[in-house]
UniProtKB/TrEMBL annotation:
CDD domains: HTH_XRE. Keywords: TPR repeat. It holds the Pfam family TPR_10. The keyword Lyase does not apply. TPR repeats lie at residues 524-557. This is Tetratricopeptide (TPR) repeat protein. It comes from Labedaea rhizosphaerae. It comes from the Bacteria. InterPro entries: Cro/C1-type_HTH, Lambda_DNA-bd_dom_sf, P-loop_NTPase, TPR-like_helical_dom_sf, TPR_rpt. PROSITE patterns: HTH_CROC1, TPR.
Length: 800
């Protein structure tokens, strides 16, 4: 039986058959005219499915176009045992854990196993591969039916599935569903059959097809989670995730050769990322690299880098729509209810990599049924109430959202939600600065109860990356007010938790938005915050440029409070550069402004910083007085992070005076407060200084543990100066001279790179003591005399 004979018998045109089979009319015509000498098995199966052929006619069709006997896995006309599995995929790779889990089903497992996952994730490939591995365990045969759950044609009914199964075991097919179920159960009782039901949409397609009694196994693949089969029928479920980078690279190596992939390892990793670890996308991309002589993996990566072109590029051709990624995604989308389809489109508007239920509520302007999309594997539940999807599905949702009439209103609701919720969170965590945050309209979707500090901290951490993405989107896409307000709301938290990388991105975006709209106040705020992030991350010269711009702008605007803040950050930058006279001058200007405005918290911070300057230049009684005054004010205000900083600085002065036991007690109080307040900057300082105090007291093992912890924390947050300080102090504790010298030299390299003279003078003295080389002490002495660092000057002099 040829395709032309079968099509005409069904009364269909080539165009009608092509639409049902998910193919092009040209491909149907090429098969019928013999242009394609050996049609692809997958194409012929799709045509047979579309024509709803009996098992006998399917075999005749396949043998006609592929050659009689060329499909050994398909039952021949004179055979009694069905062998219907599609061919195994050559070079199958990955899915080790899933294969192991399926193997476990064979030993006293349930009679149904379900493999579910997103479109293109490789469910059918895995099912067929495993079925071939275990087919000898099922001597009575293997049956296969493609249920057409998702595709261009309607899903098969239970009656149609049973018709195929009964024909496969050589039984006549009764008319009614009940009779078919009864006959199927009778004919399969006591047999050991493997039944692969591919691409199911609903449990009712599967339940009538489960044999009674032990011995047989029904293996189901579906884009839906098939919860009904798990709950009611006890089915064993395996959910497939995207490939890891290693699994993706192995797949490409199987297609292109291990040597070629090894030679372009970086491009292969990039390709895995651009394909979101999706096996179908990887195979299409790998085929593009294999099919074009001279085309490197890097070239394919370049073709896929353009987000707008990525999905159209990821299709293998018109002859088989199952290898067209857009078509594969669309079949899942078209199966959604109208509310679920709208939700999926609106999720495509979201600029972040994931979201929680409250953000989805803002997008949809009502309760979102995210679990429906999760069950369809169009989004995934990522724990803690968050949902997201891989990048290719996000691209698809974004393309669908382009025609969404409610797009602008939905984005406004979303950005209003983030702006207000961020304010509520910041007010709970940093209540003493509530008056300094933008006044923004309340929204009903805020999930945080007012004043709940623990919930607020958890929300800020969970939304950290999303807020960065949202601010970047707002700045670049016509929502400058939201970019400005979010940046001005979040700056304190970013600084406190030492999230400098995100701070640089956020404040850079806010600066661009402010300049684009002529918002001079917003520009001044962004310059100030950007300068602070640059200072904290060790880029002192860039920090000074931004802060001086901010100072001039704030003075021209008459912003006295802002002027005081910027003067303080200018002082901090000069302090790190060991320019103590300039640092003290800026602080005294800031102190006058803060006292003028009655800003008690600002006054305390300035006094504390003046104490640090005094400690550096050897004015220890003044330092103790400043730190004690700051501590008293911070405690009266209930400002725990300020109290922790004042305590830590007070402990350093006690170390300078040789009072190590007192210093240990004070630094321990500071560390405890920092951890309770979530102040990672302060925690890094407290760990480093507590380690130094223990070293001074002779507790070297404790000092080593604390300093190693400090190095890890300060490296994690990107505090280069702090990391190098902890390194060189660890070098002073270690008993291995070579290890100690290596740490000092690494710290010296960092100090020279970032131009931190305060750090350099300490490291040079430490290196001189470790090596016995007076040259280091001479350089340290020169630096200490130039900066006025009395403590390190005296250290250097003792060795010369």
């Amino acid at each position: 039986m040829s395709v032309r004979d079968a099509r005409r018998a069904a009364g269909l045109s080539q165009e009608e058959l092509a639409e049902r089979a998910g193919m092009s009319a040209r491909s149907i015509g090429d098969i019928e005219r013999g242009v394609v000498r050996r049609a692809r098995t997958a194409s012929l199966i799709a045509i047979a499915d579309a024509l709803r052929l009996t098992e006998r006619d399917r075999i005749r069709l396949l043998n006609h176009h592929r050659g009689a006997g060329s499909l050994p896995e398909l039952v021949a006309e004179d055979e009694r045992t069905p062998r219907q599995l599609p061919p195994d995929l050559p070079g199958f790779t990955g899915r080790v854990a899933a294969l192991r889990a399926l193997d476990g089903v064979l030993d006293d497992g349930p009679p149904i196993a379900v493999i579910d996952g997103a479109p293109g994730i490789g469910k059918s490939t895995l099912a067929v591969h495993w079925a071939h591995r275990v087919r000898d365990r099922f001597p009575d045969g293997q049956l296969y039916v493609h249920l057409r759950g998702y595709g261009p044609s309607e899903p098969m009914s239970a009656e149609q599935v049973l018709e195929r199964l009964l024909a496969g075991i050589g039984a006549d097919v009764p008319v009614t569903l009940d009779d078919r179920i009864g006959l199927f159960r009778t004919r399969t009782a006591g047999k050991r059959l493997l039944i692969l039901l591919d691409d199911a949409r609903r449990p009712d397609q599967v339940r009538p097809c489960v044999p009674t009694g032990p011995g047989s196994l029904v293996l189901v693949t579906s884009r839906s989670r098939m919860r009904g089969l798990s709950v009611r029928d006890g089915a064993f479920a395996i959910g497939l995730d995207e490939f890891t980078d290693d699994e993706a690279t192995d797949l490409l190596a199987g297609m292109l050769g291990a040597e070629r992939v090894a030679a372009e390892r970086e491009a292969a990793t990039d390709l895995a990322r651009l394909c979101a670890g999706l096996p179908l996308a990887l195979r299409i991309a790998g085929d593009r690299a294999a099919d074009n002589h001279g085309r490197s993996l890097a070239t394919v990566v370049g073709e896929l880098t353009d987000r707008a072109a990525r999905l159209p590029t990821l299709q293998a051709g018109e002859d088989d729509m199952s290898t067209n990624l857009l078509a594969v995604f669309s079949w899942s989308y078209r199966a959604l209810s109208p509310p679920a389809a709208r939700l999926f489109r609106l999720l495509g508007l979201h600029p972040g990599h994931d979201l929680d239920r409250s953000a989805a509520t803002a997008l949809c302007d009502g309760p979102p049924d995210l679990d429906v999309l999760a069950d369809a594997h169009l989004v995934e539940h990522r724990g803690d109430g968050r949902y997201g999807c891989h990048d290719l599905l996000r691209l698809y949702a974004t393309q669908l959202a382009e025609a969404e009439p409610d797009a602008s209103a939905a984005l406004r609701r979303l950005f209003d939600h983030y702006r207000y919720t961020a304010k509520v969170a910041m007010d709970a965590v940093y209540p003493h600065e509530r008056h300094r945050r933008p006044d923004v309209p309340a929204v009903p979707t805020c999930p945080l109860p007012p004043g709940d500090e623990a919930a607020a901290r958890a929300w800020l951490e969970a939304e950290r990356l999303v807020l960065t993405e949202v601010i970047g989107y707002c700045a670049a896409n016509g929502w400058p007010e939201h970019a400005r307000d979010l940046a001005n709301t979040l700056w304190r938290h970013l600084d406190t938790v030492a999230n400098y990388r995100d701070a640089l991105a956020i404040h850079g975006d806010a600066l661009a938005a402010a300049r684009e709209t002529g918002d001079r106040t917003g520009e001044a705020n962004a310059l100030h915050n950007l300068g602070a992030a640059l200072w904290r991350s060790g880029d002192y010269h860039q920090a000074l440029e931004r802060l001086l711009e901010a100072l001039a702008l704030r003075r021209s605007l008459g912003d006295r409070a802002g002027e005081g803040d910027t003067l303080t950050n200018l002082s901090g930058t000069h302090w790190r550069m060991a320019d103590y006279p300039a640092a003290e001058d800026y602080l005294r200007q800031a102190l006058a402004i803060r006292r003028e405005l009655g800003n008690r918290a600002g006054e305390a911070g300035t006094l504390d910083n003046l104490g640090v300057i005094c400690e550096r230049v050897g004015r220890y009684p003044e330092a103790l007085s400043y730190h004690s005054s700051a501590l008293e004010i911070f405690r009266s205000l209930g400002n725990r992070s300020g109290e922790a900083a004042a305590l830590d600085n007070l402990g350093v002065v006690h170390q300078r005076l040789g009072r190590y036991a007192e210093a240990v007690t004070i630094h321990e109080q500071s560390l405890s407060l920092c951890r309770a307040a979530g102040t990672r900057v302060g925690e890094g300082y407290a760990l480093t200084n507590l380690g130094s105090a223990h070293a001074g007291a002779g507790n070297l093992a404790i000092a080593e543990r604390l300093l190693r912890e400090a190095i890890a924390l300060r490296a994690e947050v990107g505090d280069q100066a702090g990391e190098a300080t902890a390194m060189t102090r660890l070098g002073m504790v270690l008993t291995d001279p070579a290890a100690a010298i290596a740490l000092h030299e690494k710290a010296l390299t960092i100090g020279r790179r970032i131009g931190d003279r305060q750090l350099l003078v300490e490291v040079l003295n430490n290196l001189g003591e470790a090596t016995g080389d007076a040259t280091h002490h001479r350089e340290a002495l020169t630096l200490a005399e130039a900066t006025g660092d009395a403590y390190e000057r005296d250290r250097a002099s003792r060795h010369l």
